[in-house]
Write a structure and sequence with these properties.
The complex is a heterodimer of chains A (about 160) and B (about 400). By secondary structure, chain A is of the alpha+beta class. Helices cover about 35% and strands about 10% of the residues of chain A. In chain A, helix 3 (about 90-105) packs parallel to helix 4 (about 125-130). The relative contact order of chain A is 0.15. By secondary structure, chain B is mainly beta. The chains are: A alpha+beta (about 160), B mainly beta (about 400). Chain B: Keywords: Repeat, WD repeat. Chain B: This is Probable cytosolic iron-sulfur protein assembly protein CIAO1. Chain B: One of its GO terms (biological process) is iron-sulfur cluster assembly. Chain B: Belongs to the WD repeat CIA1 family.
């Protein structure tokens, strides 16, 4: 019987979703190259589902637009994410989901760095190191069950 | 006088997946490559071009991470994420699978053949290094399991002259192993790098070793007689090359013919360093003599010098390509070639997403994952991705899962 599953963070603080992006005239112009900017990356990751709650990473303030740094000319993306509690054991999984979403969505030229907002997690160095190790990420994603969990986080939930 | 790296040929070796490693055969005529598509490809020269001679497809169930040629050139060993090492025997132009070495608990990261041809070393994410012995009947037997590292072991390399083994690890250290009284043991632990050591190699004489790391440096180590008076040797870091690499340095290769040092870096570049002949051997100076800053359009994973042809270097990349820049006093010709493949699917999209729905409902093992056995489950995942992996699986399937069974105890 599955009853009484203990959630780690039973009463998370929920934040407001930001509105949709307003398109400018230059963005609508087909002839002008749109550089990838912070907002675009944020739009990719904001709806990632939290593994524990029926909420998105944006709603839990795990990801924020101010913590996304993109340099389109250098082809680098840096995302800082904030686990809801300092001993969150899902931190690596959340980081992996963000990384996978960006790897699947962005052009191959991008170097993607995902790490924990400094000072917000007890094992941030260990988690950051694992997320930065592309061989570990590659091997983990060859594991079908882990991949399944990641895909669940990345799926579009209909509310 | 600064030299230049110019591109000889660019090959799309492992379409739609990354190429992890390339290795030249001992006679320099063949190049083996392996990658995320679980295949090994053997390339040979036909006239001026390099063509694919053989594809070894069904040896592994997961990514093939590294390949190594035996010193005689008749055997090829491949290390895979499926936790096995396959030994292939060359028969004319083809290879057949001779045997599969099992034992590691998870991904095998490297395999290396000792110069004598009788010993083989493998290392894995399970933190261990295994040494295998092969006899005249082509039988392989594990002679020792070395647990000197505290984390994932990335690379192993044999000394060119002595029976000495070195390993590089995610724990930021390098370990040196030697056989003492019929027993293999860790002789020394070299600390110095501040992050994962990805690769290492010895120079032709075996007096020095180069290591490269996620800390963006390359370190040169030299052997010195130890102070303990017992005839042991110790290794000290005599040089650190920093400021050249923009990101993780994934591979370093020391040319046995010219002494040049090549590196493959996560900033897509391949670089060549040469030693200053006038510097003291205890304080060597290496300078950058050539670099191909856009050798690939993605991370360069491996560099390998041709053992017979001076200056010929092969490198491979995340975009599945192999390229061969040639070291020569010529103008540099760089840039993306015309036959660059169109936007590739990332390796992630290649993977089959199998739901294993019945397995998850019953909390039983997914058939292909050895790691999923009984109570070892939790330990396996504990130190890796999430302490509560199964807890989260339960939560996700909550709506449909009425007779759920907790996979591990409280």
């Amino acid at each position: 019987m599955s009853g009484g599953v203990q959630l780690e963070n039973a009463n998370p603080v929920i934040f407001q979703r930001s509105g949709d992006r307003m398109l400018t005239a230059s963005e609508e112009d087909e002839d002008v190259h749109d550089p990838i900017d912070d907002r675009e990356i944020f739009d990719l990751i904001r709806s990632i589902n939290d593994p524990e709650h029926p909420l998105s990473l944006e709603e839990l303030n795990v990801v924020e637009q101010v913590r996304v740094k993109v340099d389109d000319t250098e082809s680098t993306v840096g995302v800082e994410f904030t686990p809801t509690i300092p001993h969150c054991s899902m931190a690596t999984l959340i980081g992996l989901s963000i990384k996978v979403k960006l790897l699947r969505s962005l052009p191959d030229r991008f170097k993607i760095d995902v790490h924990i907002t400094p000072g917000t997690h007890a094992s941030e160095e260990a988690v950051n190191k694992q997320l930065a190790d592309k061989e570990r990420v590659a091997a983990a994603l060859e594991n079908s069950s882990l991949l399944e969990v990641v895909n669940q986080c990345l799926s579009n939930r209909t509310i | 006088m600064k030299e230049a790296l110019s591109l000889v040929q660019r090959i799309s070796a492992h379409p739609d997946s990354r190429c992890w490693f390339v290795s030249w055969s001992p006679n320099g005529a063949l190049l083996a490559s392996c990658g995320g598509d679980k295949a090994i490809r053997i390339w040979g020269r036909e006239g001026d071009a390099w063509v694919c001679k053989t594809v070894l497809q069904d040896g592994h169930q997961r990514t093939v991470r590294k390949v190594a040629w035996s010193p005689c050139g008749n055997y090829l060993a491949s290390a895979s994420f499926d936790a096995t090492t396959c030994i292939w025997k060359k028969k004319n132009d083809d290879f057949e699978s001779l045997t599969v070495l099992e034992g590691h608990e998870n991904e095998v990261k490297c395999v290396a053949w000792a110069p004598s041809g009788n010993l083989l070393a493998t290392c894995s994410r399970d933190k261990s290094v295994w040494v295998w012995e092969v006899d005249e009947d082509e039988e392989y037997e594990c002679v020792t399991v070395l647990n000197a590292h505290t984390q994932d072991v990335k690379h192993v390399a044999w000394h060119p002259k002595k029976e000495l083994l070195a390993s590089a690890s995610y724990d930021n250290n390098i370990c040196i192993y030697k056989e003492e009284d019929d027993d293999w043991e860790c002789q020394a632990t070299l600390q110095g790098h501040t992050s994962t050591v990805w690769s290492l190699c010895f120079d032709a004489a075996g007096e020095r070793m180069a290591s490269c790391s996620d800390d963006r440096t390359v370190k040169i180590w030299k052997e010195y007689p130890s102070e303990d008076g017992q005839g042991n040797l110790s290794w000290k870091c005599v040089c650190t090359l920093s400021g050249y690499h923009g990101r993780t340095v994934y591979d370093v290769a020391w040319c046995q013919l010219t002494g040049a040092l090549a590196t493959a870096c996560g900033d897509d570049a391949v670089r060549v360093f040469k030693e200053d002949a006038t510097a003291s051997p205890d304080e060597p100076v290496f300078s950058l003599v050539a670099q191909a800053t856009r050798a690939h359009s993605q991370d360069a994973n491996c560099v390998s010098w041709n053992p017979k042809e001076a200056g010929l270097l092969a490198s491979c990349s995340d975009n599945g390509e192999i390229s061969q820049p040639l070291d020569r006093d010529e103008a540099v010709r760089l840039g993306v070639s015309d036959d660059h493949p169109p936007a590739l699917l990332t390796f992630l999209q290649q993977l089959q997403i199998s739901t294993h729905q019945s397995c998850l409902e019953n909390g039983r093992n997914a058939p292909e994952d050895e790691a999923y056995s009984g109570t070892d489950l939790r330990e396996e995942w504990c130190d890796d991705w999430t302490r509560h992996l199964f807890l989260s699986l339960e939560l996700h399937l909550d709506q449909n899962w009425t007779a759920a069974e907790k996979i591990y105890g409280n």
